[in-house]
Write a structure and sequence with these properties.
Elements: H1 16-43, H2 47-51, H3 55-65, H4 79-87, H5 95-122, H6 124-136, H7 149-164, H8 168-179, H9 189-199, H10 214-227, H11 232-235, E1 243-244, H12 249-256, H13 263-282, H14 295-308, E2 311-313, E3 316-317, H15 321-324, H16 329-338, H17 342-364
Antiparallel strand pairs: 1-2, 2-3
Helix pairs in contact: 1-5, 1-6, 1-17, 3-4, 4-5, 5-6, 5-7, 6-16, 6-17, 7-8, 7-9, 9-14, 12-13, 13-14, 13-16
Amino acid sequence: MSTLLAPAPPVLRPQPWRTALLAALTVWATTTAARLAVSLLGHRSSALHGWNQWDAQHYVTIAEHGYHEGPGYPAFFPLHPLLIRLLDPVLPGGGQVAALVIANAAGIGALAVLHRLAAHEFGPLVARRAAWYLAATPMGFFLFIGYNESLFVLLAAGALYAGRRGHWWLAGALAGMSSATRLFGLLLIVPLAVEYLRAHRIRPDVLGLALVPSGALAYSLYCWMELGDPLAFSVAQDQWDRRYTLPGEAWLIAVRQIGEPGALGAILDAGSVLLAAVLLVLCVTGPWRFRRDQAYLVVQGALTLVVLMSTEVGGRSMQSAARYAMEAVAIFLVLARIGANEAADRAVLMVGMALQAAFLVVFMGGTFLVA
């Protein structure tokens, strides 16, 4: 007499995006609670007021009044203020609240996308640490205040991940939106092209890469129609005394500025970029080096650092470089691999969050050095 076998239970497939989103929400909730505590203790009024400093005010002004408020405003690319303008009518509190909501939503998205990218390349443990390290970096609070930093990281990391998975039209579209967020989004065409040529012969979907400059081109068209100059965003940089040097020269100038007034800012910018450069070197040599097929990550990180080491703003070499260095995705992936050592993991988190708390207090006091 035959025995009927019970059907095998269904195999539960992992849900990688659900895992990434839950990890991102955990990191965001924990670090945001810490930032709120620091902000309220350090500012003694409201986090909303204290976080609305420097460039955050410019984005809200553009969202509310457009680009005619001053000659320097076109330097700020339009996607972030456009999102503020769209969200403002449905939220209480005005543009400041809308800017914070957008920054935090994009910050959660950036953590989730970085988690997926790291998991795809190096596995779930590295992914978990990478998300924590991004949020806990000394400049990590810029991802969650009214700046466009989290939006840019979300779009850049998303473009890299989409390209890595072979979704080239999506990669080009995300990179195009990044170039509407910041001009340096144009640089994404290089690592995307490196990955495309490694993985494929030329196919019709290579045209997806043509979308990378679409955001910048659309903004240029707007400047032409509204401001009378298609390069108004470039001309506006003169108002902020931005200029470019030979690659690496700005870093050497920053080192020389360490002995001048305002040396702390030069130390922070030059030191942050130097540390990022060391981590990038570890991506190509030593026990934590990346595989050859992961070269696109190294290229993106290297381009980011080269641009930072070649930029002066407001008479200070590499101003805000400590913040912009967060955009070099590879440094968080290699750091997360190093963090497999428990002592290194604890050191990165504790030192990073301690410095972030100190810099956040200074920022909210209105005297920040790398805004």
